[in-house]
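Subject: Sanity check before I submit

Could someone independently write out the structure tokens for this chain? I want to compare against mine line by line before I put it in a report. The sequence has 78 residues.
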Amino acid sequence: MSSADLTNRKPFNGESGKEILAEQMNRDALLLQPRAVNPDLPANLEKIVMKCLEHEPDNRYQDMTYLVRDLEGALYVA
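---
Independent answer below. Compare away.
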């Protein structure tokens, strides 16, 4: 599952790697919250997606175990 799967659009657009990188560097102005594109998306799932897209590596999930735990909670998987 990716941000594009949930919103039906890529978080960063561009025809080349250089264009995509430029969007990533200007992310605060260009990155839409997933619920702005898909209002049916649960808020807790949006929070997980945004954490995965964080620019600073220290602000992202440091271990997949934590990501899986949060996804299970957001999707009510036991």
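---
OP: Matches mine. For the report I'm noting this point. The mean pLDDT is 83.
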